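Quick one, tokens below. Sequence please?
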């Protein structure tokens, strides 16, 4: 396994298992199989609704001697309804309880978007908090206390733009070690990646395969098919590997961690093997030509009528 050394000194396994959309009933088996294949990094979140099943798989895997807890890297994410200072630690403790763990390797602010307590997904404007009402600095301060208490070894963010990350870096005692963002050849995010590199923030690339198992309601008819991109297909053919492996190797070769989701044993193995594929600089340049600043997950679901959030505001674009 390849690792990224974080600013905390901890080592993040570059290939992790994404668990968003990993179906209840299937994710237990997928996690057990993934551990046997060699996966050590599991990317979870409270809102995915499957941390209990993942926790059972992790507990059974450690109890049966497949892996030691210390060799695992488990990340989870604070949902938008728990940004108030008093709500952060209980949310983290709920994830720990569901995951059957004493500590998380990484706890992440899922979005720079806040909802009122108890709201899973706002149905009306009143169910949001603006970031003026509940600033990220308040939420981050509570996360820092969780590190001090040993509940999380690293804290990080997700879906943070350069301005939001810059502000957090300037005003935090404990620095974010990771920014997890959507990243793939149709959304290379060169500037964000450079900013993270320059500031010792590791990047984890989510939706590296285009998240084609998303609900249809969240899909656009015009969205690119990453597996069918010409550069990706041609490099796959020339090298005798799969298009998905080209996409994952592209992420790792750029120095980012990457968290493809699969619950299929063959694809779990194919994805894991892609971490050792070395692409040439020319191949990476060629794949980068597919960039079109296209987001599959653009945050539009947080911008319904009356919401204090806009797509432009979330990404600062
Ligand atoms: P499955 O779970 O049946 O393998 P993302 O990681 O971008 O969210 O994409 C996840 C989607 O990609 C899922 O539909 C998953 O299906 C599919 N997938 C995972 N690995 C591969 C692969 N190696 N080739 C093609 N599709 C894959």
């Amino acid at each position: 396994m390849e690792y990224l050394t974080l600013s905390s000194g901890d080592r993040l396994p570059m290939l992790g298992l994404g668990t968003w959309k990993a179906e209840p009933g299937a994710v237990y088996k997928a996690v057990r199989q993934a551990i046997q294949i060699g996966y050590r990094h599991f990317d979870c979140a409270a809102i995915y609704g499957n941390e209990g099943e993942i926790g059972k798989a992790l507990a059974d895997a450690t109890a049966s001697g497949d892996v030691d807890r210390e060799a695992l890297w488990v990340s989870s994410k604070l949902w938008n309804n728990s940004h108030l200072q008093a709500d952060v630690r209980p949310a983290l403790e709920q994830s720990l309880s569901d995951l059957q763990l004493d500590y998380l390797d990484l706890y992440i602010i899922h979005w720079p978007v806040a909802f009122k307590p108890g709201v899973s997904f706002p149905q009306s404007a009143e169910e949001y908090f603006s970031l003026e009402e509940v600033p990220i600095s308040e939420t981050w301060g509570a996360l820092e206390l969780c590190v001090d208490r040993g509940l999380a070894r690293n804290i990080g963010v997700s879906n943070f733009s350069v301005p939001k990350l810059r502000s957090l870096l300037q005003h935090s005692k404990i620095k974010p070690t990771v920014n997890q963002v959507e990243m793939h050849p149709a959304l290379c995010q060169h500037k964000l990646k450079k900013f993270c590199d320059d500031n010792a923030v590791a990047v984890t690339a989510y939706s590296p395969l285009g998240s084609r198992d998303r609900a249809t309601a969240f899909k656009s008819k015009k969205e690119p098919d990453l597996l069918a991109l010409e550069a990706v297909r041609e490099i796959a053919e020339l090298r005798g590997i799969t298009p998905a492996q080209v996409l994952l190797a592209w992420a790792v070769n750029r120095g980012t961690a990457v968290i493809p989701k699969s619950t299929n044993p063959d694809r779990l193995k194919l994805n894991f093997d892609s971490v050792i594929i070395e692409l040439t600089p020319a191949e990476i340049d060629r794949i980068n030509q597919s960039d079109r600043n296209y987001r599959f997950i653009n945050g539009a679901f947080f911008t319904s009528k009356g919401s204090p959030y806009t797509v432009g505001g979330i990404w600062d674009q």
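The pocket of adenosine-2'-5'-diphosphate is lined by residues 18, 207-213, 242, 244, 260-264, 267, 270-271 (CB under 6 Å). The chain has one domain: 3-315.
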